[in-house]
Amino acid sequence: MRITCPNCDAQYEVDDNVIPKEGRDVQCSSCGQTWFQKSVAQLEAEGKPVDRGQPKETAETVVKATSETESRPVQEPDSHATPETDSGREQQKPDQSVLDILKEEAAHESEARMTEQESSLETQPDLGLDQGEAAQDEAAVSERTAKLRGIDSDSAEEKS
What we know:
Blueprint: E1 2-4, E2 11-13, E3 24-27, E4 34-37, H1 40-45, H2 56-69, H3 96-119, H4 131-149, H5 153-159
Antiparallel strand pairs: 1-2, 3-4
C-alpha cells in the first residue's frame, strides 16, 4: 500500500498488514506531519481507490525498455586490471604516516573531551547575598523596637 503525506506529498510504500483494520495514526518522517491513515479494508468499503504502488508489469516494462534502449556493447574487463572490491573501488591501505597522524588526532581529541568534561561543571555563587546585611537589618529592627517602647537605644544594645 502506498500512503502519501497530506502536507508535503512524501510517499511511503508499506505492507498492507502495517495498517490495522481500524486504521492508525502515522507520521511523515520528512516533515513531521501526523495524520490518521485508514486501512485497505476501510478504503475499499468507502469505495475509494487504494494505491498499491507500482504494478509488477510496469516495473518489468521499465526494465525491458531500459535494456532495449541500451545497445552499447559491454566491455570485457582487462585481464591486467587490479582486483577490486564489491563496491567497485580499489582497496588500498593508507600510508603509515597518515595512520600516525590520525592516531595523534584521535588522542588529542579524546584528551580535549576529557578536559572539557572536567571543567564543564558550573557552579552558582550565592547571588550577592551578604551575611552582613542580615545582621544590619536585625540591628535596625532592634533599634526601632526600642524607640517604640521608649527604651534608650544604648541600653537596648547592652541588654541584647
